[in-house]
Amino acid sequence: MDKCIACGACTEKCPKKIDDLYNASLKKRKAIYVEYDQAVPLKYVIDPASCIKLTKDKCGNCAKICPADAINYDDKPETLKLNVGSIVLSPGFKPFDPTIFDTYQYAKFPNVVTSMEFERILSASGPTMGHLTRMSKDHEEPKKIAWFQCVGSRDMNRCDNGYCSSVCCMYAIKEAAIAKEHNGDDLDCAIFYMDMRTHGKDFERYYENAKKKGVRFVRSRVHTINPIPETDSLEVRYVTDDGRLETEVFDMIVLSIGLETDPSTVKLANDLGIKLTRGNFAEYETFKPVATSREGIFVAGAFAGPKDIPQAMIDASAAASAAGELLTSARNTRTKTAEAVPESNVAGDRPKVGVFVCSCGSNIAGTVDVKALAEYAESLPYVEYVTNNLFACSQDTQDKMAEIIKEKNLNRVVVAACTPKTHEGLFQETLINAGLNKYLFEMVNIRNHDSWVHKETPDLATDKAKDLLRMGVAKASLFEPLREGELNVNQTAMVVGGGVAGMTAAKALSSQGYQTHIIERSDCLGGQALNLFKTIKGEDVAEKVADLENAIKVDDRITVHLNTEIATVDGFVGNFKTQLKGGSKLLLEHGIAVMATGASPLQPTEYMYGEDPRVLTSLEMDIKFKTKDPILDSAESAVFIQCVGSRQPDRPYCSRVCCTHSIDNALELKKHKPDMDVFILYRDIRSYGEKEYLYREARDAGVIFIRYELDAKPVVEKSGDSLVVRVKDHVLGRPLELKADILTLASAVLPNRNEALAQFFKVPMNDDGFFVERHAKLGPSEFATDGVFLAGTAHYPKPLDETVAQGRAAAARAVTLLAKQKVYTSGQVARVDAAVCSSCGICVSVCPYSAPSFMDTGYYAGKAEINPVLCKGCGLCVAACRSGAIHHGGFDNSQIFAQIFTMSA
Amino acid sequence: MSWEPKIVSFLCNWCSYGAADLAGVSRFQYPPNIRVIRIPCTGRMSPKFFLSALREGADAVWVSG
Amino acid sequence: MSKEVIGSAVVVGGGITGMQSALDLADAGYYVYLVEKGSSIGGVMSQLDKTFPTNDCAM
């Protein structure tokens, strides 16, 4: 594997074709293949079950053609024994296989595809190169596509997956929206669903936009598909909401398949002795969301319940935090560090450029005349040494290169080979080993950008290589050694907010050995959790919160500042200085900060809230349970109204927790008093994941669910002494009148909007007032601003288990910074020449990372300076500077101009 | 001989430069008329780069990011 | 119990979750073995075309 240079010659010569699983078997690949073009590691592998050499001892083409001698047919699986301190299981999920459903005829009809297949059809690297066409032989562009939701989810009859897969509603909407982008607005997209579950951050907006773009949402579960003879189109029969039987013909049907645990994962869990839930996911406690039933083994991602990408990323970091906690005493004992070679000073020396032209076997040399290119290189200014290597990246060439650099006293190195995106680091390492500053290196891309894409015109490809090399040498000649700044990271952490998220984050930080301060504006820890009655797993919230609070109080690494707020914040990653005000007036120096400022329930202004004591919010209902209020015994009927203040134009987001909360409370009432009439008035029930089991349980217990539309909200009135709720029944289509001895309003979750705090840490908030994370998918627990992290309902409404997980996740992300003890800056950052700066402030205003600022003191007070720690090297300020005062390491004006000026020979 | 345009392309390191790499990995064949200059971000792009590229004889300047 | 703590961890599965866990553990100063049954890391997300709500490329 180390020898493979990913040239792909083996695949070209391999005669055996097999199903391409990466492309959901919609396409073939060879028996020797790379999983996909961007695969990491980019190494070719042999499918042992179909390789002709391995199965019949014939062929052997790949070994013959391989220029790197990388094929080893004798490679055998090995069993390795690893001694480790903890284990994280993240085996993922298996997309549900709908072949077993004869009603959908998935296996029989080419135009019935799974959502996974549809992803590949939409993808530019997929079987149709991103052209949305039918899979039937006509390969026509579809005019009408239907999505069927809940295939392999929320279904106890035909498969055993009673849970909701959580992600399918959103991906179906996405696929429909992207399909329309591909084939135009005329494409008719219809999504057949039971409940639309867009409970994630910004998902409801996406749903509303899809409606505006004309995606049809049909609330109906289709059970039969009939083929239309000779057209490969499909007839669908369904019953509409108002009871009409409809027939429609679609060109293509996408089955929105669910997520399930792979049988091999179930076996792994059994072998490890880990308890699973009824849905075959790893079981966990609400306040220990990534811990399995076995100590030292943690779980993250879809194996801990079906979930989307950001939730999986939160899990991942949370699991790292929990797994790392056990290993704290052995930190840095198993890691390895490289030895440093002293750097020679070449500043001011005349450039002496060494050029290494790589043949990449025949990958480059097969098209580009590398000999001519090397000869040409010798004629270029400042070039002192030129050589041609078969493989510039091989270990022996690297060693030789370091020797040559030292021997010839080269002070700039240019490698003409593949792409810097994959190989720049490797060659820079070689420069470092030769005692040369790593920024004195330039890579010229004559493979990916040249030999591979101009095979038919070798002469022109050689000319292009010469041009690119000349430009590269001209640029490299102007390189200066660049310094990487080094900065100590203050080892103290600050957590803003003392709710469950904040307390969890603080505890996780302290457990890994860091002094932590919790800043809480109220007079106690606990936040909103203090109002909650129990979790859906039946755990007593008050008890768990008290445990957490006690653990914090006895922890001598954690200091709690109650009744305290933040007055000012100075500094940046690794070196913040925060002035507290109120209860504590400390000037706190800290390296990182976690925002866990939480959220609060909306105080409703409708449904007679505040006018009648029987009208409560969900949290007030919890308090009734906690205090065993006599109303629980006396009430004969209870009504819950969902989406109070959520999912409406002025607050276009779903509050995520309310459906489950109401269902749980409804069940609790039924348990308390089985003959009580309990109604839940809802728009879509969003009991995602295994919470679906609770929904089912509630229906079985006799809780009655009545759906209403946004434009026909229930009406609450007083009739004599009684409270009456009027709502139109969606099944019967006629008005209903429900008596309510208790009326619970599932009111929206509102963020504790804190503009000042956002300003202090330069972190953004969205229109709804929730903080905006670094990346909606991949960076949910941190901000784009370095050193500032995010947890809990300040990010988005979420239940306790997800809150605890994110508290841990924020801590884990923070620990990665604290553990390094130092932050290093890249050398390729912007730098101000203060003597030329005109103090116009453009750099300060354009920088997305708040790196430039005006100097307060000294000779150049009032001029701009750029904090290299915060600079990401994008060059926006360099381009924007009207005075030419900003220089850019590695991409300075003179260097880019040198490339432009040498573009023509 | 027919006229061939000379095109200078400024490609963002994080997206288009990688995309051009990927075109290579996928062996897409395209005319050899572009000369790539890698920039750290299209934010780095200065109007002066356009103008001087045109002055140096480029028939077109392509910025992608 | 005074058993010596081993400062390393194994992460089973090289999808996005496993990769992030491995990175966070490694960056926190622990040696990580990332175990993946396939020939490359990336998992199911690498097969997706785009991701909402931003419609970013999933790759």
Primary descriptors:
heterotrimer; A: alpha/beta; Rossmann fold; five-stranded parallel sheet; 22% strand; B: 65 residues; alpha/beta; three-stranded parallel sheet; 2 helices; 29% helix; 26% strand
| CATH hierarchy: architecture of the largest domain in chain A | 3-Layer(bba) Sandwich
Q: If strands are numbered along the chain, what order do they take across the biggest sheet of chain A?
A: 7-14-8-9-10
Number of strands of chain B: 3
Number of domains of chain A: 6
Strand content of chain B: 25-35%
Distance from first to last alpha carbon of chain A: 41 Å
What's the N-to-C terminus distance of chain B?
Answer: 34 Å
Q: Provide the CATH top-level class of the largest domain in chain A.
A: Alpha Beta
Q: What's the helix count of chain A?
A: 24
Tell me, rounded to a whole number, the average pLDDT of chain A.
94
* Major sheet summary line of chain B: 3 strands, parallel
Mean pLDDT over the full residue set of chain B = 93
* Regions with little confidence, pLDDT below 50 for 5+ residues of chain B: none
Largest sheet of chain A, in brief, is: 5 strands, parallel
For the biggest β-sheet of chain B, the strand order reads: 2-1-3
Radius of gyration of chain B equals 13 Å
What name is given to the CATH topology of the largest domain in chain A?
Answer: FAD/NAD(P)-binding domain
- Judged by helices, strands and strand pairing, the structural class of chain B is alpha/beta
**Number of DSSP E strands of chain A:** 44
| Alpha-carbon Rg of chain A, integer | 32 Å
Protein name (chain C): Heterodisulfide reductase subunit A
Pfam family, one (chain C): FAD_oxidored
Organism (chain C): Desulfobotulus alkaliphilus
Protein name (chain B): Methyl-viologen-reducing hydrogenase delta subunit
Could you give the topology of this structure?
The complex is a heterotrimer of chains A (905), B (65) and C (59).
Chain A: H1 9-13, E1 17-19, E2 28-30, E3 32-33, E4 45-46, H2 52-56, H3 61-65, E5 86-89, E6 94-95, E7 112-114, H4 115-122, E8 144-151, H5 168-183, E9 188-193, H6 203-212, E10 216-219, E11 224-227, E12 234-239, E13 245-250, E14 252-257, E15 259-260, H7 263-272, E16 297-299, H8 309-327, E17 353-358, H9 370-378, E18 383-389, H10 395-407, E19 412-417, H11 420-433, E20 441-445, H12 447-451, H13 458-477, E21 486-488, E22 492-496, H14 500-511, E23 515-519, H15 541-553, E24 558-561, E25 564-572, E26 575-582, E27 587-590, E28 592-595, E29 599-601, E30 615-617, H16 618-626, H17 631-634, E31 637-644, H18 658-672, E32 677-682, H19 692-700, E33 704-707, E34 715-719, E35 722-728, E36 735-739, E37 742-747, E38 749-751, H20 755-761, E39 788-790, H21 800-820, E40 822-824, E41 830-832, H22 842-846, E42 852-854, E43 864-866, H23 876-880, E44 886-888, H24 893-901
Parallel strand pairs in A: 5-16, 7-14, 8-9, 8-14, 9-10, 17-18, 17-19, 19-20, 22-23, 22-28, 23-24, 28-39, 30-37, 31-32, 31-37, 32-33
Antiparallel strand pairs in A: 1-2, 3-4, 6-15, 11-12, 12-13, 21-40, 25-26, 26-27, 29-38, 34-35, 35-36, 41-44, 42-43
Helix pairs in contact in A: 4-5, 5-6, 8-21, 9-13, 10-11, 13-24, 14-15, 14-21, 18-19
Chain B: E1 7-12, H1 16-25, E2 34-39, H2 47-55, E3 60-64
Parallel strand pairs in B: 1-2, 1-3
Chain C: E1 8-12, H1 16-27, E2 31-35, E3 50-51, E4 56-57
Parallel strand pairs in C: 1-2
Antiparallel strand pairs in C: 3-4
